[in-house]
Amino acid sequence: MTTLMTPDELEARLRDVGRRRYHNLHPFHRLLHDGKLDFGQVQAWALNRYYYQAMIPVKDSSILARMEEAELRRVWRQRIIDHDGDHDGEGGIARWLTLTDGLGLDREYVTSLRGLLPATRFAVDAYVHFVREKSLLEAIASSLTEMFSPGIIGERVAGMLKNYDFVSEQTLAYFEKRLTQAPRDADFALDYVKKNARTPEQQEAAIRALEFKCNVLWVQLDALYFAYVDPKMAYPGAFAPKETR
Ligand SMILES: O=C(O)c1cc(C(=O)O)c2c(n1)C(=O)C(=O)c1cc(C(=O)O)[nH]c1-2
Fold it and tell me: Which residues does the UniProt record annotate as the domain Thiaminase-2/PQQC (predicted)?
């Protein structure tokens, strides 16, 4: 039988999920940050991750639509603005396209999603469906991977700038903003989960939601590894690197 945890015990359990399952532990990220990938492999990462970026405001709009309190919506809507911006060319999605531009990928090709691995699409879509179908508490808990992202982003930016001549601070500007946005978002979501998971079942559901989200991130890297690192078995029609440096 599960017993009720204190809010701080719940937080400790949630942090433990990240320690064991967050995607910083994935071999593809180690290769990316340590400069062990070639140009085409980094292109494949940026191109696939574009879909995650593009769908984040879609999933946040679903969460927003389920919030019945103006106070909550007022906070959550900032996430959508962060990614979409207030005008064309602003916001996180536009900054991600600066990265794919910098990596020599054609914008029309990236945004058409023609080169996407199917597993990327399935994983990201699963996240969008999850927040629609599960409770609001689980939907909010699933965003808590952001508690762990500043660590990996710091490591990634430093590692990529040091190891690759084809990225610059300008092309990696997306991550700079996330270093302040992610902790702000994660603090709010953690506080919500700690206050609103009031039964052992709800607490367990919040932990499962965070595990699910870790899987969403992890399997995207599995797919990249399989298609572009080993055994390099690309999906027919998916992005095929032309140039290696
Ligand atoms: O670079 C990363 O490793 C990373 C991880 C995560 C995450 O942990 O979900 C997000 C992001 N970046 C990110 O840029 C982002 O906008 C974002 C939104 C969310 C979310 O679940 O709402 N996670 C993440």
Answer: 12-222
Q: Specify the number of domains making up the chain.
A: 1
> Which atom of ligand 1 lies at the shortest distance from residue 24's CA?
3
Cβ burial 78-107 (10 Å sphere, 16+ → b, else e): ebbebbbeeeeeebbbbbbbebbebbebee
How many Å lie between the centroid of ligand 1 and the Cα of residue 146?
Answer: 6
Q: Take residue 123 and report the two structure tokens written for it.
A: 């994983």
Examine residue 243 and state whether it is found in any structural domain, yes or no: no
Mutate to test the pocket of ligand 1, among 64, 95, 174, 178 (most ligand atoms within 8 A of CB): 178
pTM: 0.96
CATH at 103: 1.20.910.10
17 lies in a domain? Answer: yes
Pocket of ligand 1 (CB under 6 A): 56, 92, 143, 145-146, 149, 152-153, 178, 217
Residue 1 lies in a domain: no
Q: Is residue 235 part of a domain?
A: no
Which of the 8 DSSP states describes residue 225?
I
Distance from the alpha carbon of residue 149 to the mean position of ligand 1, in angstroms: 7
The DSSP code sequence of 26-40 is: SHHHHHHHTT-S-HH
Domain that holds residue 212: 7-229
Closest approach atom of ligand 1 to CA 148:
8
Instruction: Determine the distance separating the centroid of ligand 1 and the alpha carbon of 243, expressed in angstroms.
Output: 28
Q: What is the ipTM of this complex?
A: 0.95
